[in-house]
Amino acid sequence: MLVVEAKLENGTPQQYQKLDEAIRTSQFVRNTCVRYWMDNKGITRNDLQKLCSTLAKNQDTPWVNLLNSQARQSAADRAWQSINRFYQNCRAKISGKKGFPKFKKYSRSVEYKLTGYKLSDDRRKIKFSDGFKAGEFDLWCSQRTLVYYSEQQIRRVRVVRRADGYYCQFLIDVERQQNHEPTGQVTGIDLGLKEFYTDAQGNTVDNPRYLRKSEKRLKKAQRRLSKRFRKGPNSLTTTTSNG
């Protein structure tokens, strides 16, 4: 399997809000499945899948029906993965905490399988077509990563919310073959602040400094905002140029 990530660009604030609603709905389905497992004995994965259909038809939770059916199943699968991991840890009798399933407070992703979205022929755009109707977004990524794969090879699509925007991860069914020739040498790595790491041979890798770069972009945006608006006596007024 291969994961290709692209940033979702050129969407309106309303479109990104729709993505947030889909993410929160996926979190609701996942947490409801965990609660259903806690309250009942002998719950299986199939029971959680059936619960998704029940939630979609429930008049008290009409927003669940807006989420794509396969996205609801993916949320139930996430809940079952945490439950199954807890069972495996108990059987293995590992020491310490067994990883009892917990409720998610701040989910940042929603996962689609084969439906709920449509890719353009040139792989530059994606359109989400479930009940939330988030609409079309531009995909910003290296073109050689997506254009060479067919839609049949894309097994899952995950929308992820981060501090710097929204991203789309494509899980592609492809067999990766990488031939490695072992050198027989051992090296040590020292992590640092100035450089990301330094190996035993003295080779260094620069620190990406994501926070510093984000702060610079924020300051630039704030300066641009301050030029467009000036403080009035009671509110902000837009500045206009004469001529």
UniProtKB/TrEMBL annotation:
Basic residues biased stretches: 222-231
Protein origin, superkingdom: Bacteria
InterPro entries linked: Transposase
Domain Probable transposase IS891/IS1136/IS1341: 169-231
Pfam families for the chain: OrfB_IS605
Chain intervals for the UniProt region annotation (Disordered): 222-243
Positions with biased composition (Polar residues): 234-243
Database matches in NCBIfam families: guided_TnpB
Name of the protein this chain belongs to: Transposase
Source organism (scientific name): Crocosphaera watsonii WH 8502
